[in-house]
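MODEL INPUT / OUTPUT PAIR
PAIR INDEX: 1
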Amino acid sequence: MILSVLKIFVPTVVAFFIGMIIVSPLSHYFYKYKMWKKYSRSSENNEGISTDFKKIHNEKGELNTPRIGGVIIWLSASITILIFFVISKLFSTDLTEKMNFLSRNQTLLPFFSLIAAALIGISDDLLQIFGKGSYAKDSRVYRKIKVATIISIGLIIGWWFFYKLGVSYITVPFYGYLDLGYFFIPFFIIVMLAVFSSSVIDGIDGLSGGILASIFGAYSGIAFFNNQIDLAAFCAVITGSILVFLWFNIPPARFYMGETGMLGLTVTLSVIAFLTDTVLILPIIAFPLVITSLSVIIQILSKKWRGGKKVFLVAPIHHHLEARGWPSYKVTMRFWVIGIVFAILGLILVLVSNQF
C-alpha cells in the first residue's frame, strides 16, 4: 500500500518540478518567436461577435500572449514518465521496476493518446500563429476540419478498445454492464466530441487549468481504488503538470493552453474515462466542462429557433457571468470550487456504485 501511494505521489512531485524547470526556456522561445494569435476573435472578419463580448474581451492579451502553453503540460508529463521508465531499465531493481508506471495494459494507450492529440493540436496552434487567410482566423470551414480530426482520432482509439482490448460495454451505475456491441465505437466518438467541445472553457486566465487539475486528480483516485495503480500515477502526473501551467496562467497569464493542451487533455480524459469504466459518471466529475459546453449549445439553438434571441449575454457561461459584472477572478475561483466539489462527488459515486 505504501509503495503504491509513493508510486502516485513521487512522480507527481517530479512532474511539477520538471515543469517548473522547462518553463523558463520554453517561455523565452514562445515570446522570442511571437507565438500568439495574429487575429482577434473580435476582429472585423469574425461574424457574430456581440457587443457584450467586446466589452469583456481582452484583445490586447490575446494578441500578445503565447497560445501554446499546453506544451508545458504534456512535455513535463512525458519527461517524467520516460525518466521512471528509463531508470527501471538501466537500474533494474524491485523498487525501480515497481516505480515504473508505463505499462501496456494501463498507461500506454492514454500516453499515446496524449502525445498524438497534443501534436495534432500544436499544428492547429501553429497555423493560427503563423498562418494567413481565413484558416488562420478560425473560419467555419476550419472548425469543420477540427471536428473531422476529432472524429478520426475517436475512430482509431475506439477501434483499438473494441478490437484489441475486447471492450464493447459500459457500466451503468447501480445497474450493471450494458453491452453496446458495434455501437461502442460510435459511442466512443460521441463522448470524445462531447468532451472536446468543452475546450471553450479555456477562455479566462486560470480557468481551464484549475478545472482540469481537479478532474485528473479525481481520476487518479478512481484508478487507485480500481487497483489501476499505473493509471492512477499517470493521472496524478498530468495533474502535477497542469499545476505548473496553472502557476503561470493565473492573471496575468504568461501563456494560454491552446489546442495542443486542450486537445491533448480532452482526448486523454475520454480514454481514461473508458479505461476506468466510468464514462457515465464523467459528466459529474467534469461538471464545469459540461455546463460550459451546454451553455454554448443552448445559445446556438436559442438563436436559431427563437429568431435570434439569446439565453446568455455571451456564451460560454463564464463570459456571461463576466458580462453580468463578475470580475474574472471571481468567475475563475468559483468555477474551481464547483469543479472540486463535483470531482469529489463523482469519486464518491464511483466508490458507492462499485459496491453494488
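PAIR INDEX: 2
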Amino acid sequence: MAKRKIIKINEKKCNGCGMCIPNCPEGAIQIIDKKARLISDLFCDGLGACLGHCPKGAITIEERVAQEYDEKKVMENIVKQGPNVVKAHLHHLKTHGAAAYLEDALEYLKEKGIPNPVEEENGGVHQGCPGSRMMDLRNQQTSDARKQTIRLESALGNWPVQITLVSPSAPYFKDADILIAADCVPFSYASFHEDLLKGKALLVGCPKLDSIDSYKEKIAQILKINNVKSITYAHMEVPCCFGLVSVIEEAINESGKKVPFQEIIIGIKGERIK
C-alpha cells in the first residue's frame, strides 16, 4: 500500500448527525455506534466532497498509507442508487480533475450497458462539490469604461497572515478587531481591503485544505493572551468554508471570554451575500 490522501474523522467532534452520508455517494462513510465511520479505504477517493457538510468540522483530509481506491468497486454501489447519484458522482470526479477515476467510471458504465446520465442531461445543473466547480467568469468582468482608475492602498496591517504562521503573542492582536478570511475571499471580493480589512488584524486560512484542529488551538491561544474586541469570519458561499464557523465558536468558548463574532459570506461571483 502507498501513501495517498484520504478523509479522517475526529470521533470527539462527530455528533452522529449523518449529514456527511448523502454527500458521500461512494459509500465510504456509515453511522456506527452514533458516530460517522470510514468503513473502507477502498471507497474513499480523498477528494473531500463530504467536508463542507459536517456542521462540527469533524472531517478533514490527511495523507497516510491506505488501501488503493477502486473506482469500479465504488461504481457497483453507486449504480444501485439511481442515475441522479451516478450523475453527481461523475460531476464530482470531473470538477476535482480526477481524470483517471472518471475514465474508470465511464468504462464501468459502458461495460455494464448503463447509460451515461451526464451525456443525457443536456447541460443540467452541477451536482458535485460546489467549492471545486469549474466556472469561467471572464464575461462577468466590468467593462473598461467602468473600471476604477484610482490606485487603492493596502489596508494590511500585520504579517504574517496565515493562521498556521502567526504568533499568538504578536503585538498587533492586542486590543484588536480580528478578521479571519478564507483564503479565496480576497481574490473574489473586490472591496476586500476597504470594506472588510481596514482597521483589523488579518488571519487567513482554508478549512478544506488545512488542519482545522490546529486552527482552533491557535485562535483560542490568541484570545486567551489578548484582549480581542471582536472576530469577523469572511468566507465563500461554498460548503467547505462553513466548517470554520463552528471552529471559531468553539475557540471563543475555550478562551473563556465573551468576544463578539459575526459572519460574512461572499458569493463566487464576488457579491456580498451576508
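PAIR 2 NOTE: DSSP finds eight helices and eight strands in the chain.
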